[in-house]
């Protein structure tokens, strides 16, 4: 009986994959994908989402793809997510007012309402734009490199309002 349980456990692990392995939608964009850092974004002591920065063999660099995965800790309206993103883009000084208005309109069509446990992953595609996934399924592609830099700058730009989260995300972002 014990031998059968061990065999079943081994089969289950083989189906899930090795511990720490990147989900498929992340693995398809990054060579040697690994988590560079993780942290929680809070607002007035309420956890809003957990964030993970996935990088490839080049680490975090402006010419290398990376993935920012957000796992939401609560229910949020997609329109509010888009509006908060546009506000943060303005705070870091990204884009012109006209660009931010266009980006906001686009984000309102992309971001769905979320609930606890929902994942939205954004892939930075250097020189090409950004691709988004909802719980591992393709959501949208934005072929605008300036949008991509502005969007990911919300978390990764030195001027971010979430400095401690930025530090946590970039903890181990150097190439290996």
From TrEMBL:
InterPro entries (UniProt xref): Chalcone_isomerase, Chalcone_isomerase_3-sand
Endpoints of the signal sequence: 1-21
Lineage: superkingdom: Bacteria
Pfam families: Chalcone_3
Domain Chalcone isomerase: 68-170
Keywords: Signal
Protein name in the entry: Chalcone isomerase domain-containing protein
Species assigned in the record: Massilia atriviolacea
């Amino acid at each position: 009986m014990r031998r059968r349980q061990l065999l079943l456990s081994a089969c289950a692990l083989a189906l899930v994959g090795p511990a720490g392995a990147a989900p498929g939608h992340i693995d398809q964009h990054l060579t040697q994908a690994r988590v560079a850092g993780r942290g929680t974004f809070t607002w007035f002591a309420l956890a809003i989402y957990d964030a993970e920065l996935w990088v490839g063999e080049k680490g975090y660099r402006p010419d290398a793809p990376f993935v920012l995965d957000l796992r939401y800790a609560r229910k949020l309206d997609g329109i509010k997510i888009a509006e908060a993103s546009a506000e943060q883009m303005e705070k870091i000084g990204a884009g012109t007012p006209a660009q931010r208005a266009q980006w906001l309109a686009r984000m309102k069509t992309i971001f769905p309402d979320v609930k606890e446990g929902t994942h939205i992953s954004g892939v930075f595609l250097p020189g090409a734009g950004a691709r988004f996934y909802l719980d591992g399924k393709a959501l949208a592609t934005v072929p605008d490199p300036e949008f991509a830099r502005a969007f990911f700058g919300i978390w990764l730009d030195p001027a971010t309002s979430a400095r401690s989260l930025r530090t946590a995300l970039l903890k181990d972002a150097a190439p290996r």
